[in-house]
Automatic annotation (TrEMBL):
<dbReference type="InterPro" id="IPR000829">
    <property type="entry name" value="DAGK"/>
</dbReference>
<protein>
    <submittedName>
        <fullName>Diacylglycerol kinase family protein</fullName>
    </submittedName>
</protein>
<keyword id="KW-0444">Lipid biosynthesis</keyword>
<feature type="binding site">
    <location>
        <position position="70"/>
    </location>
    <ligand>
        <name>a divalent metal cation</name>
    </ligand>
</feature>
<keyword id="KW-0460">Magnesium</keyword>
<feature type="binding site">
    <location>
        <position position="10"/>
    </location>
    <ligand>
        <name>ATP</name>
    </ligand>
</feature>
<keyword id="KW-1133">Transmembrane helix</keyword>
<comment type="similarity">
    <text>Belongs to the bacterial diacylglycerol kinase family.</text>
</comment>
<dbReference type="InterPro" id="IPR033717">
    <property type="entry name" value="UDPK"/>
</dbReference>
<keyword id="KW-0472">Membrane</keyword>
<keyword id="KW-0479">Metal-binding</keyword>
<keyword id="KW-0808">Transferase</keyword>
<keyword id="KW-0418">Kinase</keyword>
<feature type="transmembrane region" description="Helical">
    <location>
        <begin position="49"/>
        <end position="69"/>
    </location>
</feature>
<dbReference type="GO" id="GO:0016301">
    <property type="term" value="F:kinase activity"/>
</dbReference>
<feature type="binding site">
    <location>
        <position position="63"/>
    </location>
    <ligand>
        <name>substrate</name>
    </ligand>
</feature>
<dbReference type="GO" id="GO:0008654">
    <property type="term" value="P:phospholipid biosynthetic process"/>
</dbReference>
Length: 115
């Protein structure tokens, strides 16, 4: 049972690391708060909330995986390496796609409610 509880401790430690060291993770966390407040004020439907939560989760998960990949690449390739750069760039590209998805979801849900 202790291993089970430790897994949560490790997960929260990872979230703490990302929040403390990654500007983009902080930015996305603020965006989550803004989206949550806007959704509450605009009284989103259950289906709309599901899309917003999916978009938020996709971005945060992508950002966390990007951070993990960057730390791993730095560990195994401390000096400049073209392939390490490609790995980091592709990982960042995944976050970009997730963020574009989130913006598209936000525009489709929030703009009609504001108009």
């Amino acid at each position: 049972m202790q291993k089970f509880f430790n897994s949560f401790k490790y997960a929260f430690s990872g979230l703490h690391y990302a929040f403390k060291t990654q500007f983009n993770f902080k930015f996305h966390t603020v965006a989550v708060l803004v989206a949550g407040i806007a959704g509450w004020i605009l009284k989103l439907s259950t289906a709309e909330w599901l899309w917003v939560i999916a978009a938020i989760s996709t971005v945060l998960i992508s950002e966390l995986l990007n951070t993990a990949i960057e730390v791993l690449v730095d560990l195994v390739s401390p000096s400049y390496n073209e392939k390490a750069k490609i790995i980091k760039d592709v990982s960042a590209g995944a976050v970009l796609i997730a963020a574009v998805f989130a913006v598209a979801v936000a525009l489709m849900i929030f703009i009609p409610k504001l108009a």
